[in-house]
Amino acid sequence: MIKVGIVGGTGYTGVELLRLLALHPNAEVCVVTSRAEKGLRVDAVYPNLRGFNELCFVDPTIDNLSACELVFFATPNSTAMHMAPDLLGLGIKVIDLSADFRLADVAVWEQWYNDKHACPELLQQAVYGLPETHRAEIAKANLVANPGCYPTATQLGFLPLVKANVIDLNMLIADAKSGVSGAGRAASVGALLSETGESFKAYAVPGHRHLPEIKQALNEVAESEVSLTFTPHLVPMIRGIHATLYARLTDQQVDLQKLFEDFYRDEPFVDVLPEGAHPDTADVRGTNRCQIAVHQAQRGDVVSVLSVIDNLVKGASGQAVHNMNIMFGLDETCGLSQVGLYP
Amino acid sequence: MIKVGIVGGTGYTGVELLRLLALHPNAEVCVVTSRAEKGLRVDAVYPNLRGFNELCFVDPTIDNLSACELVFFATPNSTAMHMAPDLLGLGIKVIDLSADFRLADVAVWEQWYNDKHACPELLQQAVYGLPETHRAEIAKANLVANPGCYPTATQLGFLPLVKANVIDLNMLIADAKSGVSGAGRAASVGALLSETGESFKAYAVPGHRHLPEIKQALNEVAESEVSLTFTPHLVPMIRGIHATLYARLTDQQVDLQKLFEDFYRDEPFVDVLPEGAHPDTADVRGTNRCQIAVHQAQRGDVVSVLSVIDNLVKGASGQAVHNMNIMFGLDETCGLSQVGLYP
Amino acid sequence: MIKVGIVGGTGYTGVELLRLLALHPNAEVCVVTSRAEKGLRVDAVYPNLRGFNELCFVDPTIDNLSACELVFFATPNSTAMHMAPDLLGLGIKVIDLSADFRLADVAVWEQWYNDKHACPELLQQAVYGLPETHRAEIAKANLVANPGCYPTATQLGFLPLVKANVIDLNMLIADAKSGVSGAGRAASVGALLSETGESFKAYAVPGHRHLPEIKQALNEVAESEVSLTFTPHLVPMIRGIHATLYARLTDQQVDLQKLFEDFYRDEPFVDVLPEGAHPDTADVRGTNRCQIAVHQAQRGDVVSVLSVIDNLVKGASGQAVHNMNIMFGLDETCGLSQVGLYP
Amino acid sequence: MIKVGIVGGTGYTGVELLRLLALHPNAEVCVVTSRAEKGLRVDAVYPNLRGFNELCFVDPTIDNLSACELVFFATPNSTAMHMAPDLLGLGIKVIDLSADFRLADVAVWEQWYNDKHACPELLQQAVYGLPETHRAEIAKANLVANPGCYPTATQLGFLPLVKANVIDLNMLIADAKSGVSGAGRAASVGALLSETGESFKAYAVPGHRHLPEIKQALNEVAESEVSLTFTPHLVPMIRGIHATLYARLTDQQVDLQKLFEDFYRDEPFVDVLPEGAHPDTADVRGTNRCQIAVHQAQRGDVVSVLSVIDNLVKGASGQAVHNMNIMFGLDETCGLSQVGLYP
Predict the structure, then answer these.
(1) Residues facing B232 on adjacent strands
(2) Three-class DSSP category at A331
């Protein structure tokens, strides 16, 4: 059993890690930290975990985490970077679900996250934890930067097209929609049911932090600079991301369906739907699965890709467990075989 | 008082007409038809109308409607075209909220609506009822084709850009999202709360009936053929449409905010929000208002327009009442001064 | 035009007052206060009010309010009691939407609201603003304590039975359900969509502050002490309260339907539905109406009353406007003739 | 591996059986029937099952089911009773999720279900499948009548009180609230999101079919006739039932918390929450768990019990799998160890 610690156990990605790991056959959560809830039983705060977890929240100190083999950071940005160096120094592997290690360029990071990076030297060592593109490096990594939710859905949709070099990279559109849990479990007026229920709106249109992350990843695959417009929207539901992606085809003869199916044939968590399908976030609820459909509407020169994930699973905690499985040489699907909770 | 008849009073656009007209100072609903609910009191079916309406549903016959000065069709497609000729022949004005008279080209109509048109000769006489573009013709019209909900939100967002000739018409993207009431009040599995709640998905990506309507309208303004990708999505809420529109700017120096403000300066129902705003469907709930914001994210060459309406009001029944006001020479805002029901 | 001030204009009852008064023919909002949003335009914070209100938020000082004829307090509890004496001293009428003046017994108030009352001497002068029971006093009042949302729905349901003396007062059950807007517009984890969406739960079962208010009102009508169990629940929707009330009939021969219809025959805002009906919160959304049905299931000795209101209108701001109409001798329905926003 | 057939695989309880059995280590679904979807792959209709199920829907004939060891009926009422005799005759065990075998008295069944019972002789042989009260009989049963959703939540809440004889059986109140999935996956206006979203209402107050089922069960335990008022309500969410139960205590000295904890100490799927708790349907979403809290508000003589389940799991398909586990001598929790999907 892998001894696991979770820093920041009271947010949604923290409790989702606890849900997934509760039934994982090869990992055991030994430490869950929370400054605010210190001393309280985890299952007193999260009654869904009653019977699965007898731990109490403790302070997030290196000492409390020192017996772990792996520590997940399910914290706000700018937390993991202050503790990761010490943990790595103790030989403890780290998977950071926040954004601290996602951007390779420290200047870009500091611009978008409005902070001075605490350990820029680790940025090169950190591996971007999208298994579909970085599996081999993840297997050898000590520090994994778990991708953002929007970047996961968006990259998985664009990747086959970019890799096959069949689209114009000068005008990529990612129109993305997320459930409200993406805003986290912090008290905020903007995420109240009274504000977000029966409401639909875009936000951060001038620039969202996930934009540089997506561009970095697509640039890497494209081996050139892509031009991307990324528009996030808030959907009146709890879980789920739907990315609707648009690009102009430079090759209209390509068999898009075959391209996608071939690209993801061996991926356990990317499911290319049959031609003509419209993926629904509800079908991947609670699972680590990305379902994708590709369309060429009206036989025109625009390709549309529809990509759905559960933002808390494939977009966060499930992908983190997937990364753990790879890092520790386990079967990749270990603990991740949930069926989508429909309806 | 204008004597009004409503054919198809049991659907959502019908009951919304009844809500709006209940307090209209210059119009009186005299006849409401419904085959299924014939004989029942309107307010027995719709308790929100108790105290406002004492009518009973009657059969949709020409005879029952013959004393009206104006008849609204709030019916499924392919109904109005069978009754409109007779009503017009009696000197009764007609506003059709369905799609029967929206497309000028009968062949296009028959292809998309899968039916033979019953009175193609009326297609040229019918006026497309978007007041912002057809005000003068509406004032003189006897037959108005009330626009679709998606086309309303989409046109109002694209119009200033197309008219000013500042965007590339070869790749327009309209990523549109609608509340479930757009699917109507018919029993269907796909619109159950259990199917659409906590769910987000695109639909009709290969081609939606509102596509030719939008293209016809934009072509007319552009005086050339536009290339448009239109993707509708279903949002887990009742009312509201959010259209997110993308185009490449051919003139990056244009002052977009000023362009939009000038374009809509005198329009009572189009409200251009201040720079940087993100319109929310909740702010226009229950009103005939379209709120719009225009963005040029990251100072790039892509313009994004965010356009929100209440699909049942500005996207249907409110716009129909607006058209009625114009046709009968009333103040345009008569009966349409609701404040958005927030929260 | 009555010159109106609103203290606490940024909460949901404040913005709802602004919505209702925007179209009120005899009242004009001259001052809206908010410490937090001071200096901002009201319609910048609430875009649904664009075009209806040009005011900016100001500090809640007596000076700023001194030109008003009436001041509404749409504030948290324990605010109005600190300002009301000065305003009343200036001859300004006060309607308090909070709980500061609802309980006649200062000791009970201090126990439930955990504070020392700032002006207990006003408690006797304050009139409880439920028009259906206190119309005459309201007409002469300078200080009106606007009822709570749950107490409004509950009292209106129990009143005819208590007054007619046909139920056993020793075991009244009020099982009440409220939309989340009842929790207000304050940042809180408990009211996030992610917490309350797809969730149903009771809260405050050991004792909710509306319990003593309801009991005081029912005791007064009963002229004896009633025994009431009151259980509030949170419904995953924004607006609406549904109170399901149970009591044992002491007189099984009473014609319940007639009893209720007679009791409310002349009330403009209480609508007794036909026998067998099930009122729906959606039918009174946005209106000042209470819809009620009374049932005697299985011909047994238990009477069930179903009572629905919009918690922000009849349960708060609409009732406050109703009280204003009465206090200033206007037609009671002035500005309150909205049709329920269904669907 | 137990060979399992599912009759009626396209409703919500059918697809929920498929979800639960997909990961059950000792059961294999071999046949799934559906007249309407005959020939289609199961995972084409339910994309959440892609990768878990390769079956196609077949006609519901005895022949198609003859190789099964167990058949679940996830059908509307009045279906199972026509096929159960033949299946039982072939030595195939039957678990009926519909109501055909729940009522022991055929006259009562025929009155409430408006049909002639097809095999009244089986009613005595059928075992009521609430494991908490009928475990031993279930273990030996060939025909199990799986309880209704409301009856499950209601009985589990009342049972300890009735058994301990500490409440007045003359006025039991069950105020129950259900998510919309309880209405099934049939096309109906009443279950549209546009009708049930942002709406709360009671239904079937004059008498709901689950009333005789609950009374039969409580009478059996009480060994006398209970008087019960049962009021179901519709909650704008998909899954979850919350039963709020009220009774007058005849013994006010009883330690209610201890009573409930002792009663359910050995039950794997009933979880008595700590004193003062308010169970939330969200905490049991997707699980076979019932969470219960018991309150004696204001130290009065009324006991309130709050009981939550997922209507599709503990209220239907999960309980059916639990029954299967008991009937086949498996560990009771086999395949039923999901953690509640919060948030």
Answers:
(1) B176
(2) coil
Is the pTM higher than 0.80?
yes
Assess whether B226 and B280 both reside in one domain. yes
In a domain, residue C133? The reply is no
Q: Which of residues 262-281 of B touch A (CB under 8 A)?
A: 276, 278-281
Q: For residue A256, which of A292, A220, A224, A215 has the smallest C-alpha distance?
A: A292
Q: Which tens digit of pLDDT belongs to each residue from A16-63? A: 999 999 999 999 999 999 999 999 999 999 999 999 999 999 999 999
CB contact under 8 A, A187 and C189: yes
Orientation angle between helical segments B149-163 and B256-263, nearest 10 degrees: 120
The C-alpha of D153 sits at a distance from chain C's nearest C-alpha, in angstroms, of: 14
For residue C161, the domain's CATH number is 3.30.360.10
Q: What is the CATH number of the domain that holds D83?
A: 3.40.50.720
> Tell me, what amino acid is at A92?
I
Judge if B172 and B79 occupy the same domain.
no
Question: Residue C141 domain-assigned?
Answer: no
Mean pLDDT to the nearest integer, D306-311: 98
Domain that holds residue A32: 2-125
pLDDT at B325: 98
Dihedral sign of CA atoms D79, D85, D86, D92 in order: positive
Interface of A with B in 191-230 (CB under 8 A): 194-195, 197-203, 205-207, 211, 227, 229-230
Q: What is the pLDDT of residues C5-41, one digit of tens each?
A: 999 989 999 999 999 999 999 999 999 999 999 999 9
Pair A26, A72 in one domain: yes
Domain shared by C121 and C156, yes or no: no
Rounded to a whole number of angstroms, the distance from the CA of B78 to the nearest CA of chain A is: 24
Q: How far apart are CA D105 and CA D108, in angstroms?
A: 5
Give the C-alpha separation, C166 to C164, whole Å: 6
* Contact criterion met (CB < 8 Å) for A48 and D273: no
The number of domains in chain C is 2
Of B277, B291, B341, the CB nearest to C341: B341
Q: CA-to-CA distance for A147 and A138, rounded, in angstroms?
A: 12
- Residue C122: how many other CB atoms lie within 10 Å: 21
Q: Quick one: B82 and B37 in the same domain? A: yes
B166 backbone dihedrals φ, ψ, rounded to 5°: -115, 5
- As beta bridge partners, residue A249 has A167
Q: Supply the DSSP symbol for A179.
A: -
- Nearest-CA distance A90 → chain C (Å): 36
Chain B residues touching D188 at Cβ < 8 A: 187, 192
Q: Cα separation of C9 and B343, whole Å? A: 14
Alpha helix ranges (H) inside A26-125:
42-45, 62-65, 80-89, 106-113
Q: Is C304 helix (H, G, I), strand (E, B) or coil?
A: strand
Pairing mode, if any, of strands D270-272 and D290-295? parallel
Select from D185, D198, D343 the Cβ nearest to the Cβ of A181. Answer: D343
